[in-house]
Amino acid sequence: MISVEHLTKEYGQVRALDDLTLKLSGNKIVGLLGENGCGKTTLLRILAGLNQPTTGRVTIDGHEPGPYTKGIVSFLPDTPNLPLRAEVGYMLKYFEDFFANFNRTTCQNLLDTFNIAADDRLNEMSKGQREKVHVALVMSREAQVYLLDEPISGVDPAARDSTLQAILAAMHPEALMLITTHLVADIEHLLDEAIFMRHGRIIAMGEVEELRSDSQRSLNDYFKELYIS
């Protein structure tokens, strides 16, 4: 579903991605893990068609990022970019008009789960509530690929599990989800595979159960060993 070949992305003298190669199939949830500044967000933005590679090639379902891939990829940025003066109901209509694969019923069910009403205004919400609105909108597309950049970073710790369960319930069957986070302990029970990045490169990856078995520790402890020791 996703193919990345010798991908490099430079911002001036800074190399955010360094000759990265990766292949991912569908019907799984993959954690993209690493320290801040390791290239996770840059990779997701290139896959979403928002940034262009410096060198290398990216395809999604056999197509380079463009109109076709934007029709099958649903992207949640690390910072919600919804218009703050809008009401939630306006955003539902906007997504319904803009995306052919948007399911309004799914979105309404998610908003009900989050106790958010259609007449609620975004600028009157907490950061966590605004993030939940964005999650509801993104997960209500019947996409083939979901790219979620830190979807629970602004959510209250007590609500993280319910938010993740809502994401999992809304995920379109047989889709691929690529999710970045530094809150490994909160999501490791959801992951099928994990990819660890540092300085724009992949330093380790594999199926979560194999990583746990080989290291004899939780994925969170394995993460700490890679980046702290």
Structural summary, described in words:
This protein is of the alpha/beta class. The chain has 9 helices and 9 strands. The protein has a 6-stranded mixed β-sheet, sandwiched between helices. The longest helix has 13 residues, at 127-139. The model has no long low-confidence stretch (mean pLDDT 93).
Number of helices: 9
Annotation, overall tally of beta strands: 9
Structural class: alpha/beta
Helix-strand topology string: EEEHEHEHHHEHEHEEHH
Q: Report the helical percentage.
A: 25-40%
Based on CA atoms alone, the radius of gyration comes out at 17 Å
Main β-sheet description: 6 strands, mixed
Unreliable runs, pLDDT <50, ≥5 residues? none
End-to-end separation: 34 Å
List the helices and strands and how they pair.
Elements (H helix, E strand, L loop, with lengths): L1 E10 L2 E11 L3 E7 L5 H8 L7 E6 L6 H6 E4 L11 H11 L5 H10 L13 H13 L5 E5 L10 H11 L5 E5 L3 H4 L5 E6 L2 E7 H8 L3 H10 L1
Parallel strand pairs: 3-7, 3-8, 5-6, 6-7
Antiparallel strand pairs: 1-2, 1-4, 8-9
Helix pairs in contact: 4-5
Quickly list its features.
alpha/beta, six-stranded mixed beta sheet, three-stranded antiparallel beta sheet
Brief overview:
This protein has 229 residues and is an alpha/beta fold.
